[in-house]
Design goal:
194 residues; DNA-binding; homodimer; mainly alpha; 10 helices; 70% helix
Chain lengths: 194, 194
DNA sequence: TGGTACGTGTACCATATGGTACGGTTAGTC
DNA sequence: GACTAACCGTACCATATGGTACACGTACCA
């Protein structure tokens, strides 16, 4: 009998967890069923069995990473107040591997590889609306909130890339604080509307 | 006889060009010697011959992409004046594939894969100094120039990622312009020194 | 007790990969 | 013309991969 819909089970969760752990350390790009299985002392046959195929596992891993990222970057953390603590939250050392994997999947999705459908929409568009709302609440001109939300996401991801590359927590924190100070100037000035 | 140092030649350039073209379209992560060779009607044996190994070719491709990126982002384009035209230059449609490949190698390097040594230093640290100089010339406070340079690079790359993901040229352009307007406010206000 | 569905391991297959052995071709040089 | 070295193609090899066939065990239920 062919398994079309994979059921959830404890064993499946264990396999998925191992796959994510493996991806966090070694990347997802050359994800190998045998390596993952070996890391928890089972056979790659199990991964095929529980996820249908390699791509099935890849989809599950992508979804899981996406879920963790969204869980971590709750809208609460997007408030523009207390920038230092917010950046510390975003850039916490224990989350480096997760962030790196996130960007890896991001690029993966840019290349249109199977298993990443919908990832980019969630990663970009899915964040603009909530950030925009937070900005408006913080007193930002509505006409500029959309652009500033986009800008804020870009700054966050750009600086996270910088941090991943250099490990310079002080420099990136300083840059992030500068950005928030710039934002504070917005409420005191008109930016002109394009 | 073993070729330790590969000489430059017309044939080698042709192979490298084909490899870069292939990477621009299909990515560099699962770079296949056979596919590249096939795309110009030769055998993968030639790539091994001219580049020593798969990794040798990968190094050459990375270097070439790095060179193109630096050639394109000359410091001239980093001036903060005429933001609209600068962004149009950065985000020119014909350069999307190149930018995507750049990010791909960036992630590649974050995972510490062979062939990407030195790439991150060039991609981040190598740009901060020139941008910083441009900012100082433009009248930015010296104490803030370093952080703003870092911020500017982050904004540029973050928005390029956004653009690659969404294709929304209008939205990203608007966000970029907002950023330059924020910068203009800097020269009129103290930012506080951390 | 017999049967059925699920879960797991072993062995295997077809394929694709990087790399090598070897032979052939061309161009330059004595 | 003969030798040499660079250049290139064909055939091959060892390996790793995703996927499949099949056998075995367990749990549940009639």
């Amino acid at each position: 009998m062919v398994r079309l819909v994979v059921a959830s089970s404890q064993a499946r969760d264990r396999l998925l967890h191992a796959a994510v752990e493996h991806a966090l350390e070694h990347g997802i790009l050359d994800l190998s069923l045998r390596e993952i299985a070996e890391s928890i002392g089972t056979s790659h046959r199990m991964l095929i069995y529980h996820f249908g195929s390699r791509e099935g596992l890849l989809v599950a891993v992508v979804r899981e990473v996406d879920r963790r990222e969204r869980e971590r970057l709750g809208t609460a953390s997007l408030s523009i107040v207390d920038a230092r603590r917010r950046w510390d939250h975003l850039a916490h050392p224990s989350l480096r591997a997760q962030e790196r994997l996130f960007f890896e999947i991001y690029v993966h999705a840019l290349l249109g590889r199977p298993g990443t459908e919908g990832f980019l929409d969630e990663a970009v568009e899915g964040w603009i609306a909530p950030v925009r709302a937070v900005l408006v609440d913080a007193g930002i001109d509505e006409d500029n909130a959309e652009g500033l939300a986009r800008l804020g996401l870009a700054v966050t991801r750009g600086l996270l890339l910088d941090l991943l590359a250099t490990g310079d927590i002080a420099g990136t924190t300083r840059a992030f604080e500068l950005f928030t100070q710039l934002l504070e100037l917005v409420s005191e000035h008109d930016l002109g509307h394009v």
